Amino acid sequence: MSEHILFLTGKLAEKQLQQILQKMQPEFTYNVHQIGVKVAALMTADMIARRLKDTFNADRIIIPGRCRGDIEALSKTLSIPVERGPDELKDLPLYFGKQALHIDLSHYAVKIFAEIVDAPNLPVDEVVQRAYYYQSNGANIIDIGCLPDTPFAHMEDIIQTLKQEGFQVSIDSLATEDLLRGAKAGADYMLSLHESTLWVADEVDAIPIIIPERHTDIISLDKAIAVLQAKNKAFIVDPILDPIHFGFTESVVRYHAVRQKHPDIEMMLGVGNITELTHADTAGMNAILMGICSELNIRHILATEVSQHASRAIKEADMARRIMYAAKENNTLPKHINADLMALHETSPFPYQLAEIKEFAEQVKDPSYRIQISQEGVHIYNRDGLYSAIDPFDLYPKLQVEGDAGHAFYLGVELARAETAWQLGKRFNQDQALNWGCAAKTSEPTVDLHTFKPAGTTFKKT
């Protein structure tokens, strides 16, 4: 027997919801019921509990995605499972598709070493503060970078303090004296040893990261691997990823060759040579780099956030490793898993066509302005009419808000957001900041749908 679902909605969205469900031709049966509120986004759990008198023998109830309130309590009150659907009705088919996939992003295979490159020049408390920042963005190990010809008298204090705070730590230097000091102070890893400096690994317990004796010298890397394997010591191999036009493609081939020759060793990819040294958005770079890690079973990366354009690189790497892990586990492409790496674009930026927006506008009977976008441009409407433009300045003379500075300011902000969304191909939802994924912080806090956010300026008179 097929599942029977009750969809709750508002007056303005009822017809559209019916049309979408009809086009879906779902396997389940359903009822659509509007509970007497004009705008579905203003529906609340308490309102549903008061107004819903008939559950239509449903097995579960789907409510609008922006519906506020405690739906667990509502489920108990109605004795039926209640869940939030997507924010946009047009995403309903995708919503049911995602339910079938059950994508879990809590797992990953790659550990992130986050390097503090200028640690010798920073006081202990600032290093600790930065370590917590990196950890909050997904870092697993805090890498303490040493600088050539720069005294580092407080190295031990930094490492011991970080260890006391519960961090895993690596010491990063080509100078054996630095590595010995760092490891003896409690560092868990050492970056980097090569064939001539392997003796350091015999002196301390820290796990060494091994690099070629000379750049691209894979033979020396093989020798170092053989020595450490003979001693049954743990180690990680880094064949070195080179910047674009300075050996990048060849270095990727080198990683592949090392993996083919040594299928079971632990490996590291230093992603900073790409994210830091390429002036392009780092979210896409991290997606590709984590894809390489996933295919070659590389389970450690060294990441940095030195350049301003790479200021979200660790957070992006964290999301990328989770997406790639989920894609690999589900034997699927890394598509439709999570949108946090799509900072500038979206898979479906324009959920509504102009004809549908015109239909919405005809139903509005109040003076509050609604703003939407379609492939044709930016659209604003109320009971007095629908106006469309590509440049929001063209709309101002038609809005009649010259005597209302507050309203004019509000509409200016929202129309600017709408224009940006239209230009880039992003979703626009009135009264909400644009979603930039993990590439930027927004001024709005994470939405808690258990709380009741005040209605936006547009809806206050609805």
From TrEMBL:
Highest taxon, organism lineage: Bacteria
GO BP of this protein: pteridine-containing compound metabolic process
UniProt signal peptide: none
InterPro entries reported for this sequence: Dihydropteroate_synth-like_sf, DUF6513, Pterin-binding_dom
Domain Pterin-binding: 93-356
Transmembrane segments: none
Name of the molecule in the record: Dihydropteroate synthase
